[in-house]
């Protein structure tokens, strides 16, 4: 089983889950660090700063734009750097840069998400690439990216110069989820928005792209942050039409759902599967483990999201044979009293989450602390072993 084939399996259930919805296709890259020694690098390339070694997981996850539900993985890449590149970044064509993954992932996502009503590809600053803006959008496939570069605009000057005098038109409190660089908190942000026409930058392989593109900029600024706190300042570029304050706030809220992919990466590492503790000896094995871990972490995320109820179907995360196993297991983990019965609609994702949590050691009582990622991971591992045995039940060995 190759890494490529494992990644192809990520989206097995996703096309049905996204059908008819507005989907946020959120993509990002995470470094998966593995311990090495100077004389034993395990075939791993450099990641991050210093002497860190590991692999990189570039993942796209589908999220419902209306309710924030994780609908499954879409596509991505797991790769290992093989030495350093000596040619300066500006002198390389896009196909020779790691940054090509943003556009390649968006293009690979389109057939997977074909049944969606609308797709908005969401990413952070590293994806602010002119080639990506020029090539990926389609009438039903929009981009939403936080700006990295102060780009030149038609008529002279730059985006940040052009927008510096735009008036703020609204203020609102927003909840900020925890990230590796920031604790969860609330922030009061001011909003301004408008259209900007950006110019094509100079660079290798850029001549065939349009000389200008008109995009919408939504800027959210925390003008009076608490003492000692880095203020929020998001410059969000999008291909969506933004004609009023309500739509501008919608862009901000869609961008805030980018935290879902941060949760996924945390579940792959410190808060769940602890992939970085693996003792596998080869880079190839660690890449395969990372690909498997991304899929497992996505299911755990879906189960944690569903633990408090909701209308999402179990088919978002489970195949029909697996749902048959859940039916059988549910009867064994329910208690005799009403308080120990599965309270959720049969075959909903919340119903499945309750079963997996019980298999992971949760008591099931409404007064108990809600099951967390570790409980779900333990229950998922137990369930997978049972499901594997169930699949073999009709196998005849001669």
Brief rundown of the structure:
With 398 residues, the protein is of the alpha+beta class. Helices cover 31% and strands 22% of the residues. The longest helix has 24 residues, at 283-306.
Task: Describe the overall structure.
- It is a single chain.
- The protein is of the alpha+beta class and 398 residues long.
- The protein folds into three domains: 1-123 and 258-278, Transposase Inhibitor Protein From Tn5, Chain A, domain 1, CATH 3.90.350.10; 125-252, Transposase Inhibitor Protein From Tn5, Chain A, domain 1; 307-391, no CATH class.
- It contains eleven helices and ten strands.
- Strands 1, 2, 3, 4, 5, 6, 7, 8, 9 and 10 form a ten-stranded mixed sheet that branches.
- α8 (283-306) crosses α11 (373-391).
- The protein is globular and about 75 Å long.
- The two termini are 27 Å apart.
């Amino acid at each position: 089983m190759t890494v490529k084939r494992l990644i192809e399996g990520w989206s097995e259930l996703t096309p049905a889950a996204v059908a008819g919805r507005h989907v946020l296709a959120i993509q990002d890259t995470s470094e998966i660090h593995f311990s090495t020694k100077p004389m034993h690098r395990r075939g791993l390339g450099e990641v991050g700063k210093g002497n860190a070694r590991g692999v990189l997981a570039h993942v796209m996850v589908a999220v419902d734009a209306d309710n924030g539900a994780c609908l499954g993985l879409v596509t991505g890449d797991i790769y290992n750097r093989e030495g350093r590149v000596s040619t300066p970044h500006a002198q390389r064509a896009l196909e020779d840069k790691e940054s090509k993954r943003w556009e390649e992932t968006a293009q690979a996502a389109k057939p997977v998400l074909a049944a969606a009503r609308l797709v908005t590809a969401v990413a952070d600053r590293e994806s602010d690439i002119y080639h990506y803006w020029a090539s990926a959008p389609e009438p039903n496939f929009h981009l939403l990216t936080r700006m990295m570069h102060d780009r030149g605009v038609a008529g002279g000057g730059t985006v940040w110069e052009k927008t510096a005098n735009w008036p703020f038109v609204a203020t609102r409190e927003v909840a900020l989820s925890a990230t590796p660089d920031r604790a969860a908190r609330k922030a009061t942000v001011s909003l301004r928005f408008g259209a900007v026409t950006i110019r094509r930058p100079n660079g290798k392989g850029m001549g065939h792209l349009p000389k200008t593109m008109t995009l919408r900029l939504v800027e959210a600024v925390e003008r009076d942050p608490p003492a000692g706190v880095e203020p929020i300042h998001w410059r969000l570029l999008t291909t969506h039409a933004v004609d009023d304050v309500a739509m501008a706030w919608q862009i901000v809220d869609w961008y805030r759902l980018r935290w879902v992919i941060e949760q996924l990466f945390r579940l792959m590492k410190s808060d769940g599967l602890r992939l970085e503790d693996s003792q596998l000896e080869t880079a190839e094995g660690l890449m395969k483990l990372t690909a498997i871990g991304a899929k497992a972490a996505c299911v755990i995320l879906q189960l944690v999201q569903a633990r408090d109820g909701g209308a999402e179907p179990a088919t978002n995360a489970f195949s029909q044979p697996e749902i048959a196993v859940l039916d059988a297991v549910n009867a064994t983990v329910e208690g005799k009293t009403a308080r120990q019965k599965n309270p959720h609609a049969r075959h909903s994702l919340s119903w499945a989450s309750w079963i997996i949590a019980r298999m992971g050691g949760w008591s099931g009582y409404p007064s108990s602390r809600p099951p967390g990622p570790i409980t779900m991971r333990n229950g998922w591992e137990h369930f997978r072993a049972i499901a594997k045995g169930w699949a073999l039940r009709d196998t005849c060995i001669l």
